[in-house]
Amino acid sequence: MVPSPKKHAPAIRDAEATKTRILDAAEEEFAKGGLLGARTESIAAKTGVTKSMIFYHFGDKEGLYSAVLERAVSQRVASIQKTDIHNIDPEIALKNFVETFLRDLSGNSHLPAIFFYEGIQNKGRFYSQIAITSLYTPIVDILRRGTESGKFRDVDPLHAAVNIVGMCVFYYCNIDNVKHLWPAGTNPLSEEMKEMHRRMAVEQTVASVLIR
């Protein structure tokens, strides 16, 4: 007799929950020291699983690292896809993109650090293997539409997109340095400060491309 698929559902859910816990712990670990500095022993200890279980799900440390990057990008893309970035007014679409991107980013401060280490340690080797273009394509399309409509200046859309994303993430990538620019006791990751960064990034982005 063929077992009912329902009997396997709890096991499948448990496996997925275990993978999610591993990815969450790995994301935190990779943010501290990148691929080279991360220790699978620490990830295992945080999740209550063995190293062999981690390798069973992800192959090796590099496989786990790739999975963390892929999940990060797919989550960002999914969030942006829920936003009105196809608005007929490219200015509104651009504001929506930057606001969504930054609200999403402010909720997970690990990602900028991971991508920073990726560039320093791996020269973007793993970055080039994930669908990173799916994150940039929407903003490139918005910029191109804005230029074609005559509302935006004639800018190179991909280069402008890279600069816009860079302005958004630098605050978080370099937070331990820039925090010293404010008076002692100021928390640059407070909700008030993150909201100020979001608002100013949106304003500066739009101002940089609009024809006045």
Q: Label the overall shape.
A: globular
Largest sheet: none
Radius of gyration from the CA trace?
A: 20 Å
Strand percentage lies at: under 5%
Give the H and E element order: HHHHHHHHHH
Distance between the termini: 73 Å
Poorly predicted ranges (pLDDT <50, ≥5 residues)? none
Verbal overview:
The chain has 212 residues and is an all-alpha fold. It has a single domain, classed as Tetracycline Repressor, domain 2 (Orthogonal Bundle). 72% of the residues lie in helices and 0% in strands. It contains ten helices and no strands. Helix 5 (90-106) runs parallel beside helix 8 (157-173). The longest helix is centred in the N-terminal third of the chain and has 29 residues, at 9-37. The chain is globular. The mean pLDDT is 89.
Which SSEs are present, and which pair or pack?
Blueprint: H1 9-37, H2 40-47, H3 51-58, H4 61-81, H5 90-106, H6 110-122, H7 133-149, H8 157-173, H9 175-178, H10 191-209
Helix pairs in contact: 1-2, 1-4, 1-6, 3-4, 5-7, 5-8, 5-10, 7-8, 8-10
What key phrases describe this protein's structure?
212 residues, mainly alpha, Tetracycline Repressor, domain 2, 10 helices, globular
How would you summarize this macromolecular structure in one to three sentences?
With 212 residues, this protein is mostly helical. The protein contains ten helices and no strands. The N and C termini lie far apart (73 Å).
